[in-house]
Amino acid sequence: METKRRPRSVLEGAFTLLDALVRHQGEAGLTQLANSCSIPKATAHRLLEQLTELEVVQRSESRYRVGAQAFRLGQSWQPYPRLLELARGELRRLTAATRASSVLAVPCDGHILIAAASLTRPEDHRLFRPGSTVPQRIGRFCPIWQAEHELVTAEAAITLPTGRTVGSIAAVLAPPRPLAALSDTVARAARTLGAALVRKADPVSPMSL
């Protein structure tokens, strides 16, 4: 007996449209969004107008884009306390040292989410833009996906002293650039970041009050 799919809730429909906007590089028309989400055009229009009133979506003539309120909400997201703040500086240093694009990757619903990035190649901006997801295999960038896009990654897990892994740092290379030479550099960056996450702030001296 075929199981009947439950009706899509209003909230689910709204988030489906927002996700479609992201997939369409942040801007799309009503028909395009309705078709890509398999939502009736009238329903999509009603949801988009409600999101526009909340400033989660902006409308420019006949097109919609992600709004300022969605940006503000996204800025408050953290995969782990202080991880984004500390990772951005570490990624810049890693990119300067290796001249390769570098990314912070965290697990997300069976994929890898690019949480932050320091990118050098124009083509990497399409694949590794923060907020995008890529296929994974056993918690690492999928080798088949890497081969399809003619790139390789040197990855290292960000691990806390408790043994918990909160993400990974990866340097992105285009063959035939050697991968082994970067592995130690990436591993050091991951260890530095893991240590910084648990380092306690220096106590405030009474003389400074």
Automatic annotation (TrEMBL):
Database matches in InterPro entries: HTH_MetabolicPath_Reg (IPR050707), Tscrpt_reg_IclR_N (IPR005471), WH-like_DNA-bd_sf (IPR036388), WH_DNA-bd_sf (IPR036390)
SUPFAM superfamilies for the chain: GAF domain-like (SSF55781), Winged helix' DNA-binding domain (SSF46785)
Domain HTH iclR-type: 8-68
Transmembrane residue ranges: none
An example molecular function term from Gene Ontology annotations: DNA-binding transcription factor activity
One annotated GO biological process: negative regulation of DNA-templated transcription
Coiled-coil regions listed in the entry: none
PANTHER family named among the record's database cross-references: HELIX-TURN-HELIX TRANSCRIPTIONAL REGULATOR, ICLR FAMILY, HTH-TYPE TRANSCRIPTIONAL REPRESSOR ALLR
Protein name: Transcriptional regulator, IclR family protein
Organism: Amycolatopsis keratiniphila subsp. keratiniphila
